[in-house]
Specification:
By secondary structure, the chain is α/β, with parallel strands linked by helices. The protein has two domains: about 60 residues, 2,3-Dihydroxybiphenyl 1,2-Dioxygenase, domain 1 (Roll), CATH 3.10.180; about 50 residues, 2,3-Dihydroxybiphenyl 1,2-Dioxygenase, domain 1. It is about 15% helix and about 35% strand. The protein is built from two helices and eight strands; from the N terminus they run E-H-E-E-E-E-H-E-E-E. The protein has a four-stranded mixed β-sheet with strand order 1-4-3-2, covered by helices on one side. A hairpin with a 6-residue loop joins strand 6 and strand 7. It is globular, with a radius of gyration of 16 Å. InterPro entries: Fosfomycin_Res_Enzymes, Glyas_Bleomycin-R_OHBP_Dase, Glyas_Fos-R_dOase_dom, VOC_core, YwkD-like_dom. Keywords: Metal-binding. GO terms for molecular function: metal ion binding. Pfam families: Glyoxalase (PF00903).
């Protein structure tokens, strides 16, 4: 098997409208498709960034919360590449999103910071 890339990341939200506004209005994703699946009482929104399909945003009735802190097994966080972490952090802070102080990766020397989506999913800005 030869993987050719990552097709998408699926995120389950308890707050569809807040998450939709966050991923589009704050982070700049575009909605490619939004469907309601009656058989599952579930919404699915396909989001893209820079013309590339990236995130599936779902709702499911009664979906349990996923523990994040302390560090739980599973997906730890989703990281977004940026050219200037300070500028990106300032932009989303200006949109009402709390951002942790910028840190430096001790092994790569790259700068990064963390913030959270409306469901508390840890997200990262990582400077290229």
């Amino acid at each position: 098997m030869r993987l050719t890339g990552i097709h998408h990341i699926a995120i389950i939200t308890a707050h569809l409208e807040a998450s939709k506004a966050f991923y589009t209005g704050v982070l700049g994703f575009r909605i490619d498709r939004e469907v309601y699946r009656a058989e599952r009482d579930s919404y699915k929104i396909d989001l893209s960034l820079n013309g590339q399909y990236v995130i599936e945003l779902f709702t499911f009735p009664g979906a349990p919360e996923r523990p994040s802190y302390p560090e739980a097994r599973g997906l730890r966080h989703l990281a977004f590449a940026v050219e200037d972490v300070d500028a990106a952090a300032a932009e989303i802070t200006g949109k009402g999103v709390a951002v942790q102080p910028v840190r430096v990766d001790e092994f790569t020397g790259k700068r990064f910071t963390f913030f959270a989506d409306p469901d508390g999913l840890p997200l990262e800005l990582y400077e290229l």
